[in-house]
């Protein structure tokens, strides 16, 4: 059976068995329990995570303590505070586990070594980065132009399994609406 990370990478580039073993050698596996943090605001982020199983959220807290969810991370998704990871500056966000999670991670130094020695992986991450920017642009556009009902329906269509895995208050925090508004959108 093909390793899930290899399957994920080979959606973009092809790898020989030897190349994949070389790539995998740059990653470590970690398990986290529900409610454990991967990243806390103020720390320097040293790792980029790929989700084998489980569900996570990245978010920030405003000055009143209200949670604003930026991203969910589920199987086959990458998650970190990219500004902190790339620039090695203090994180502005939190990332914690909504469910028990199994993750693979790569640290910045290993990612740099891997991309320098293997141009296929440089292309892989360039493509993933472009796709991430497109997703972010679409999220911003949706927040700016769509009603809360349309945002809710788009999220439901795009990620139906999320609604079975994530409490409604988190869906509301992601959509930028109150829990009460979310309840009305369900009707």
TrEMBL record:
Top-level lineage group = Bacteria
Every Cyclic nucleotide-binding domain range: 33-113
Record protein name field: Crp/Fnr family transcriptional regulator
């Amino acid at each position: 059976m093909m390793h899930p990370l290899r399957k994920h990478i080979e959606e973009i580039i092809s790898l020989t068995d030897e190349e994949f073993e070389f790539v995998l050698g740059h990653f470590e596996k970690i398990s986290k329990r529900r409610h454990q943090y991967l990243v806390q605001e103020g720390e320097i982020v040293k790792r980029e995570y790929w989700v084998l199983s489980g569900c996570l959220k990245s978010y920030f807290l405003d000055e009143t303590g209200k949670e604003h969810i930026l991203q969910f991370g589920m199987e086959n998704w990458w998650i970190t505070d990219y500004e902190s990871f790339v620039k090695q500056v203090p994180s502005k966000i939190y990332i914690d586990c909504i469910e028990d999670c199994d993750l693979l991670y790569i640290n910045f130094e290993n990612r740099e070594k891997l991309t320098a020695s293997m141009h296929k992986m440089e292309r892989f991450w360039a493509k993933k980065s472009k796709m991430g920017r497109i997703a972010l642009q679409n999220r911003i556009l949706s927040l700016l132009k769509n009603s809360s009902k349309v945002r809710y329906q788009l999220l439901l269509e795009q990620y139906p399994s999320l609604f079975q895995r994530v409490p409604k208050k988190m869906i509301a925090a992601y959509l930028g609406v109150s829990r009460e508004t979310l309840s009305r959108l369900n009707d």
